[in-house]
Write a structure and sequence with these properties.
Elements lengths: L2 H5 L3 E8 L2 E8 L2 E6 L6 H12 L12 E8 L2 E10 L2 E7 L6 H6 L1 E2 L4 H8 L4 H5 L4 H66 L4 H51 L7 H38 L3 H13 L3 H5 L4 E3 L6 E3 H91 L5 H84 L4 E15 L2 E15 L5 E4 L6 H18 L8 E4 L7 H12 L4 E6 L1 H4 L8 E2 L3
Helix pairs in contact: 4-13, 6-12, 7-11, 7-12, 8-11, 12-13
């Protein structure tokens, strides 16, 4: 639904068993709706119902109900939320207006308990709140990925550097082999020439010579075969050496990996489950406390439906329930029936409110612990995956090593058979040799040996040339790798700068919008509220890291008209409330919340006087499609009378 369509739509809201509301059905026109009345008249419950329809979980079931629901209709779209009590927790369901209500909870639903307002009052670091809607996490993930890629490239370049050092040695080896091959070729040519000359001078015993030549040919063939087997054995040994080298590297990597304590991941998962359950229990307790507080506030103020019915009955009978329940400072307790001071019940209510705030703080601490545990679990799982990968590869290496060792044994057996055949051929040649052909046999033997030596040298030269070509091919990649590393470094610098830039822009926009809001409020002694971005070393889990911190500053003016800087801690309670509200309202503007969230709700504005409330409502009426603001009667009178009024029962 577009913003234009929303702005023309009338909103219908139905509520059942939420907060202090039994059943309620009402409508809102586009623009501002003023919820006027005294405290404890279910105005806040109505606002929380609107929030619940948007997806917020900051809502409580009515104390005596096990189920509740909220239905919000905007134009042709209807959104429903359901709530069901299950033990100590409340389970929600349905289809809310927003898929993710976090932004709205922070900056659009500005009740007294709003996180943004309370964070300022507590003096918390505001960076998390300001940057939460900005997708900084994805940038950090990109940085981590690029850092790993940079480390991988550095490893490859280190390997290439070692190969580069080896290249001159291989080139010298190649030159030496080429020289040796040339010498052997010359020797072989001379020997073959001698054989030809000898053959030309011998004309008899052609048969013997023919058989001798045949056997000598077989002998040369077998020597070539044994040479080929030797090459294959050498190749297998080199592969074994490479496997052993990889195995050593993997074992070193495994030793460098910190041990994952047995069962630690299970312990963390168990603790995470426990903390989540505890958070649900605390949230349920907060909801119950909210219901109890609302109920007692209504009973104390006389706005409870039970009290109203009793008053009506008393009027019909000529009596006065108020006279029966209230003295000057006395009230009949609705839980035990005894007469107590009204201040005692008010004191109990204040303790309940304090307990609720303590529970909310416990919930925040549990959330931080959950984040730390999930980070620790992720680290352990990553280490375990790497260890599993190493173990799998070690197992593969062991299997491959066994296969290559078996192949070497088979080749050695083949070589042994060839040696036997060569011995047999040499014996046959010896038998065929005659006194007059002994020289010829020696020549052939020498030629065979030269061919064998030449074959080995050529094989060695081929291996060296292959290795040189492989190294040169890899070295050709070095420039690309170095260029890639430079690109990664540039990208990392850009990403880190982007985060700082986003933080600086966010701070600048917050300061601008807080100035705008303060201009609307026109405080004489509150000149400026602004945020400063600094970098500090802070504890994150078990270690300290350098992080950005957003500090809030307040500029005030004394009676003599002199401006000076003050801290939030030195402000009065009402000034802290105003400061928190200004911060939250600035967040609404900077993140353009009005573009995605139809409703804005305002409550607990007692720290601001009526005229300023009126200007504030007028200012934000131009942004929100629907602005529901809860005001006391005297404050509501100062707001534009054209705004619709609504008084919850």
């Amino acid at each position: 639904m577009s913003s234009e369509q929303v702005s023309k739509s009338k909103v219908h809201l139905s509520v059942e068993n939420i907060g202090g509301i039994d059943n309620l059905s009402t409508s809102f026109e586009p623009g501002v709706t003023v919820l006027a009345g005294r405290n404890a008249t279910n105005r806040t419950s109505l606002l929380r119902s609107i929030m619940a329809a948007h997806g917020s979980d900051d809502v409580a079931l009515k104390g005596d109900a096990d189920e509740g629901s909220v239905e919000l209709t905007i134009g042709d779209e209807t959104y429903t939320r359901t709530f069901e009590r299950q033990g100590d927790t409340v389970i929600s369901g349905g289809n809310p207006v927003l898929d993710d209500p976090d932004l709205a909870d922070l900056f659009a639903f500005l009740l007294e308990t709003n996180d943004a307002r309370q964070a300022v009052a507590r003096g918390d670091d505001l960076r998390d709140l300001i940057m939460r809607p900005v997708d900084v996490e994805s940038i950090n993930e990109q940085i981590e990925s690029l850092q790993q890629e940079k480390r991988d490239i550095a490893d490859e370049l280190s390997t290439l550097s070692n190969l580069s050092d080896r290249l001159p040695q291989l080139e010298r080896r190649r030159t030496k082999l080429e020289d040796q091959i040339e010498e052997k070729e010359d020797e072989l040519a001379e020997k073959e020439q001698e054989v030809e000359e000898y053959d030309a001078s011998v004309s008899e015993r052609q048969e013997v010579e023919s058989e001798l030549e045949s056997k000598l040919g077989d002998l040369r063939s077998k020597r070539r075969d044994i040479n080929d087997v030797d090459r294959r054995i050498e190749t297998e040994k080199q592969s074994l050496d490479a496997l052993e080298s990889e195995e050593d590297e993997l074992e070193d990597d495994a030793e460098d990996l910190p041990e994952v304590a047995g069962g630690r991941i299970d312990e963390i998962e168990s603790e995470i489950s426990r903390l989540r359950t505890r958070r649900q229990q605390i949230q349920s307790t907060v909801n119950e406390l909210q219901s109890v507080i609302q109920f007692n506030e209504e009973m104390l103020s006389g706005t409870s439906s039970d009290v109203v019915d009793a008053l009506r009955d008393a009027d019909d009978s000529g009596g006065s329930v108020t006279d029966q329940l209230l003295g000057d400072d006395q009230v009949v307790c609705w839980t035990c029936g005894s007469e107590v001071d009204k201040s005692e019940i008010e004191g109990t209510l204040e303790r309940l409110r304090t307990l609720r705030e303590d529970k909310l703080e416990d919930n925040r601490e549990h959330r931080e612990q959950l984040s730390e545990l999930e980070d620790e679990k992720s680290t352990y799982e990553r280490r375990q995956r790497e260890r599993d990968r190493i173990e799998r590869r070690l197992s593969e290496i062991e299997s491959e090593r066994e296969t290559r060792q078996e192949r070497i044994e088979e080749l050695k057996s083949d070589r042994s058979d060839l040696e036997d055949e060569i011995d047999s051929l040499e014996q046959t040649v010896d038998e065929l040799e005659s006194e007059e052909h002994g020289d010829l046999l020696d020549l052939h033997r020498e030629a065979n040996q030269l061919e064998y030596d030449l074959g080995r040298l050529r094989s060695d030269l081929e291996d060296v040339e292959d290795e040189i070509a492989d190294i040169e091919r890899k070295l050709d990649e070095r420039d690309e790798l170095e260029a890639a590393r430079e690109d990664i470094e540039d990208e990392l610098a850009e990403l880190r700068t982007r985060i700082k830039r986003l933080e600086s822009e966010a701070v600048e926009e917050f300061n601008t919008h807080m100035d705008d809001v303060l201009d609307v409020l026109e405080y004489d002694n509150l000149d400026r509220i602004w945020i400063e971005r600094t970098e500090k070393r802070v504890r994150e889990g078990r270690k300290k890291v350098k992080k950005s911190v957003f500090d809030l500053h307040v500029i005030r003016t004394n009676e003599d008209g002199v401006s000076y800087e003050d801290s939030v801690a030195h402000l009065s309670e009402s000034e802290r409330e105003v400061t928190g509200l200004v911060f939250a309202l600035a967040g609404y503007l900077i993140h353009d919340v009005y573009e995605t969230v139809p409703f804005m709700v305002l409550d607990s504005l007692e720290a601001i006087d009526s005229n300023r409330i009126s200007r504030l409502v007028d200012y934000f009426a131009d942004y929100a499609d629907y602005l529901a603001v809860a005001l006391l009667e005297e404050d509501a009178q100062a707001v534009d009378s054209d705004y619709p009024r609504y008084s919850p029962a």
